[in-house]
Amino acid sequence: MATSKADYYETLGVSRDASQDEIKRAFRRLAMQYHPDRNSEPGAEARFKEINEAYEVLSDPEKRSTYDRLGHAGLDGVFSSRGFEGFGPFGGFGDIFDAFFGAASHARRRTPTRGADLQVQVELTFEEAAFGATKSVTINRTELCSQCNGLRAQPGTEPQRCPACDGLGEVRRVQRSVFGQFINVTACDRCRGEGWVIPTPCSKCRGTGRERVTRTLEVKVPAGVDNGSQIRLPGEGELGSYGGPRGNTYVVIKVAPHPIFERTDDDLHVRLNVNFAQAALGDDVEVPTLEGPHKLRIEPGIESGEVITLRNKGVPHVRGGGRGDLHVHVQVVTPKKLTSEQKKLLQQLAESLESDGGGRGLFEKVRGAFR
Ligand SMILES: [Zn+2]
Ligand SMILES: [Zn+2]
Fold first, then answer.
1. In the chain, N or C terminus with fewer CB closer than 10 Å?
2. Rounded to two decimals, what is the model's pTM?
């Protein structure tokens, strides 16, 4: 197992005869770059642990000489005994500075705050909502400055222990009053309680460590989303502060109406117009579905307003497991314009129906017509 480990010098990117100072600098740079609080890229945490482990060995003259002579094998048991999973001495990001600037334990601890959430709207066609799609959305958000990687110092320069408070983050003044002498402790003005200052701020972000950027994100829209559905893109929101995690981006779905389908939840509705010959005699027709035309048998004697349900021809359920139905609403259309030939045929039909007594002169109670 030990043999598969990366070389500690390579991990820190220093030569075998690097001085303690060089090792320290390399570690600080890498630790800040890969600290899990600041870097959410996959693999960053694993890298951070490697960096930490390499530093722990190379910064200790005794361990370093063992490692130089025997390699990883010489250090077996050093890490396994106490489990390196907790990654060493560093808790929050500020602790990295503490490790270099001494026991700045009084430096004000800022509460890590999660970044704000962002919201962006994406428009889908009716079919994209039904079957899913991959869409691009563009957001404007704050990221770590690409020049200083959020360190706030101009590349090549480094943060320094605050000279005003000597890295303590607070200033003590002895005050005398009529009640006696007491010590007044205030946060250091110079470093705003942080214990360190940036002598040469980064030129790109003017020392803020942040920049506004426009990002295009790919969104996988699952099949079955509807108007107002939201898709959460975790960690794609605004930057957190003081080591807090990023916020999320929420993609709000807007679905364009369809020219013929009406949607209620995962069911679809479509109107089918038939003429009264088809209604009386029955017919084989085609109805539109999301997948294209579908053959449908109209039974003789169908009434206007009847609904024929085609199972599983609706919209897929967004959480999986089947789909809704397609309801075909039959509408018998009475013709407004007739040719003289058609009029003659209908008159013959009318006379024939009259002799049957069919549909004339009879009143029935209306059942359920006004539901
Ligand atoms: Zn910068
Ligand atoms: Zn200070």
1. C
2. 0.61
CA distance 8 to 1: 15
DSSP state of 129: H
151 CA → ligand 1 middle, Å: 7
Name the residue type at position 194: E
CA–centroid distance, 211 to ligand 1, in Å, is 8
pLDDT, tens digit, for every residue of 212-248?
Answer: 999 999 999 999 999 999 999 999 999 988 778 899 9
Q: For tokens 């303590």, name the residue.
A: 168
Sites in the chain below the pLDDT cut of 70: 1-4, 37, 76-110, 356-371
d(CA 68, CA 265): 68
Residue 358 Cα distances to 179, 349, 353, angstroms: 113, 11, 5
DSSP 72: G
Q: 């089918």: which residue's tokens? A: 272
Using alpha carbons, list the distances in angstroms from residue 296 to 308, 326, 327, 330. Answer: 9, 12, 12, 12
Tell me: the pLDDT tens digits for 277-312?
999 999 999 999 999 999 999 999 999 999 999 999
Q: Which ligand neighbours the alpha carbon of 206 most closely?
A: 1
Q: Name the nearest CA neighbour of 274 among 219, 351, 335, 363.
A: 335
Distance 198 CA to ligand 1 centre (A): 11
**Which of 93, 33, 40 has its CA nearest to residue 237?**
40
Ligand showing the shortest atom-to-Cα distance for residue 172: 2
132, 222 contact by CB (below 8 A): yes
Encoded tokens for 86: 């907790």
Is residue 177 classed exposed, middle or buried when 0-12, 13-18 and 19+ CB atoms within 10 A define those classes?
A: exposed
- Per DSSP, the residues of 192-246 read TTSSEE-SSB-TTTTTSSEEEEEEEEEEEEPTT--TT-EEEETT-SPPPBTTPPP
Q: Please give the Cα distance from 197 to 239 (Å, whole number).
A: 22
| pLDDT at residue number 102 | 44
Residues sharing a CB contact under 8 Å with residue 106, sequence separation 6 or more, in sequence order: 168, 169, 170, 195
Ligand nearest to the CA of 209: 1
Q: How far apart are CA 164 and CA 175, in angstroms?
A: 18
